[in-house]
Amino acid sequence: MRHPPFLRSGPRVVGALVTGVILAAxxxxxxxxxxxxxxxxxxxxxTKNTVNLARPAPxxxxxxxxxxxPASEPPSGAEGLALTPPMGFNNWNTTHCRxxxxxxMVKGIADIFVERGLKDxxxxxxxxxxxxxxxxxxxxxxxxxxxxxxxxGIKAVADYxxxxxxxxxxxxxxxxxxxxxxxxxxxxxxxxxxxxQFAEWGVDYLKYDNCNNQGMDARLRYTTMxxxxxxxGRPIVYSICEWGQNKPWEWAKGVGxxxxxTGDISDNWGSMLSIAKRNLPxxxxxxxGHWNDPxxxxxxxxxxxxxxxxxxxxxxxxxxxxxxxGSDLRKAPASAFEILGNREIIAVNQDPLxxxxxxxxxxxxxxxxxxxxxxxxxxxALFNESARPQRVATTAAAVGLPAATGYAVRDLWRHTSAHTxxxxxxTVPAHGTVMLRISTARAWPLLPPxxxxxxxESLMVESGQGGRLTTTLTxxxxxxxxxxxxxxxxxxxxxxxxxxxxxxxxxxxxxxLSTRWDVSVPAESPPGTYTLxxxxxxxxxxxxAWVTVAVPAGVSVVVPPPAxxxxxxxxxxxxxxxxxxxxxxxxxxxxxxxxxGRPITxxxxxxxxxxxVHASSTVEYYTGGRCTTVSxxxxxxxxxxxxxxxxxxxxxxGTKAAATGVLTNAMAAVPITxxxxxxxxxxxxxxxxxxxxxxxxxxxxxxxxxx
Length: 707
Fold this sequence. Notes:
Blueprint: E1 21-22, E2 87-90, H1 92-95, H2 103-115, H3 118-121, E3 125-127, H4 153-163, E4 167-173, H5 191-201, E5 205-209, H6 218-231, E6 237-240, E7 258-260, H7 269-279, E8 291-293, H8 306-318, E9 323-325, H9 334-340, H10 343-349, E10 358-361, E11 366-372, E12 378-384, E13 390-395, E14 407-411, E15 416-420, E16 423-428, E17 433-439, E18 451-455, E19 459-462, E20 466-475, E21 481-489, E22 495-498, E23 506-507, E24 512-520, E25 528-540, E26 545-558, E27 565-567, E28 575-577, E29 584-585, E30 600-602, E31 605-607, E32 610-614, E33 617-622, E34 629-636, E35 645-652, E36 655-664, E37 670-675, E38 681-688, E39 697-706
Parallel strand pairs: 2-3, 2-9, 3-4, 4-5, 5-6, 6-7, 7-8, 19-26
Antiparallel strand pairs: 1-18, 10-11, 11-12, 12-17, 13-16, 14-15, 14-17, 18-20, 20-24, 21-23, 21-25, 22-24, 25-26, 27-39, 28-33, 29-32, 30-31, 32-39, 33-38, 34-37, 34-39, 35-36, 35-38
Helix pairs in contact: 5-6, 7-8, 8-9, 8-10
């Protein structure tokens, strides 16, 4: 696989999700039935670790095992599996092949499922990933569990999991070896024997990977294992893990119950975001018993903030994706259990209608995703992919609900209810998601109106200067609220003063209370993002209760570039987002931690200065209207061989000032220059070249700004 999943970013500061909405409480397909499947290329990289290419090739490529004579009909229980997305645990994201992956851990996870209420919330499968076996089969050709990791064998572990009322899963690969470089046995040529062994052990779920596949046809390999599993007579959920290389969503319905649509996820924002973007367009292929799988959850592993983990969980849930916990729950923080145990979000994922959410809009990183539910309601995710708070809005009509006088709105993270005349909106924090459930319930008049609390999305102020920030309370309901008011407080030493009225007697449906605030920043304030607190308060007549909500309002203290010509790699940016790993200064992007890149090299030319990024990427600088020109040499870094296609753009405020079109690794460095005269901000943007976020190592070489 292109992006080894063991590459992780370091710990980040935990953040809090604030929605900004006041919601007061109140027979199977034969292998030859379709056109010939695409043929895999021989695997040289994989989803777990680098394959040991020095290992001698086998003397002959094994063919898939020959099937016994088929029964007159599929064995009982072979159909009707995974009618909702599977929920459970898989160890890979947290342990990989390290020693802590063992019998004690697996049993401990099963215990926690029961003790912490995860089983009752719907989590069912406790699954092993790679490295559970010895590298060699026994003299009879059977798989041998590692006696150090699993001294009592696999069946004993499966029996323990079953004794807790849970189900047990295992892993192998549709190749001669599994993905780990130690070279554990794969199932290619052993499908029927391995399937019988899994059934004997009591396996309920099989993850079937794609490493060391010898270039054999993917559909043949995966269909052979399907037939082998069915021949056991045991119902086993079948997870096809071929990383989306051969578009399994087009042929795997009737082969497996779920199929991976992407490569492996890593525990960082860029990885999660890029995988979600690849999975979202595939909504039409998902349904009961056949799910798109964007890989396992990272919640609780520590590489993202709680706000980002809530977005991760929200997006996977609204995409009807499998929810397989990938963190060691014995060590996970309380916030991880709060996220993973949110039953209102889980209910969206597990809804029996089985629809994957579809994208309604995504302009400017403001995503609206809607999922129809079996009771006639619709789940809506308002997702902000940007690095600053943004208002994300839609309507009940836009998400597919019929016309109505009013709608009931349930906030699934805040667990509050309200009504709206049709507008669905919130100021969503950076990298955050608001999850709503909307219906035409007749009782909506009994609910208080939804009042949106918002502030300007971006205020940039230089140290020792001031700016003006506008806050707004908007009543989206049909009934009024009384005595609305707003207060805004800043950090110590800051001056915040209302320049227009911040309170009123009544806020009727469809009206707003806007307040302009003068904000002064103390001299010598270090550059960075500061949080002001906007507190809104009103009286809800339907309940007679005061409703108070506090939301953050971000202000960036910025420093303009010095006069003359500067290298952008030497300047501080106001925000940066990257597809994999952090943005690197003066090196290429290494996809993981800061400083793991190489010298910037495009078409054999080495550059001493620059920025190394990975699509999709945005790096923003404050220019304060003082600069005139941005220039650079750009291209795909040589370190990815012949892979990677990207496009470069320079934006001046909201205008695209320059663009390259699609560039490939075969091209030399290309110059790009933009006139940015008068712009307060400049953004360096790299987009995917149209073939997916794959090895898109993009370099801004020798980037200069003239001010």
